[in-house]
Amino acid sequence: MLKFIVSIFWAILALIASGGIAVATSLYFFPLKASKLDMSAGENLFSERCSGCHSNVQGQISGLGPNLHNIGLVAGDRVAGQTAGEYILESLLYPQEFIAPGSSSAMPAGTVKDLNTDEIRSMVAYLVSLGASVDYADIAALDITVPDEQQSEDEYSVAEMRAGWHLFSRELGCIACHSIYQEPGSALIAPSLEKASQLPADYVLQSIRAPGDQIAESYVQRNYKLQNGESVNGRLQAETESTFLVYGFGSDGRRRMHHLDKSLVVEAVASDISSMPPYSLSREQERNLIAFLHSLQGGGY
User: How far apart are the first and last CA of the chain?
Assistant: First the structure.
């Protein structure tokens, strides 16, 4: 019996050595080493870099970007000729190449600029797993090259960061709407900036100078006119068959969560004006503000 087992073992080795067992089969059963593909690491990277704008929980309202709970299921049908993995990779490296239906063009480049190829591959694999089975061969074959223009980083002094903090918290009053801490309700009025260091400087500057150029769908302000003559202005948080859940101002001028019965809503009009005013700053002020935002890597300042 032992001789038979040994014979089988050497026969298998001989087949492998001669190419009798296809590489594809080996890849199927042993897709990628842990150092090459780590689903847990991919999930952590999503949490660190994407969850501020994208939710991965079905039915949960996202921030700036769309909900990605089933992105793996729909990604393969977005662009003709692209697999789910290819589409997601392109979305990370070149987010402006294709804007998904119903999404804004707010996602900046540079989300993965400081990651190595294994980390990016793991992140893609995790996103593919949201709603679909992972095709490991497809993930392994992805050609991952981060654009050179996304790889450079500026250096800021502590003095510039402190001056930027003063601008953010006092002179401009940004902190009244933008939280720099991850806490419940931190993104009700405006996007949380607790991980603003992930945003490219040019994107942030454009948002400061002309915030109305790109308004994320989830932050569009709407006016709801009611049958009793009152109106509610605010941001749509959730919608059911019978109710609008809106966070904003009521006729009394107070900001709160409004549960609006759809049968009582006469009209709902979306505004193309950002609730954030444009700012005209000096080059030094802009650099200081960017320096402070660059220091926000989660957990506040």
Answer: 68
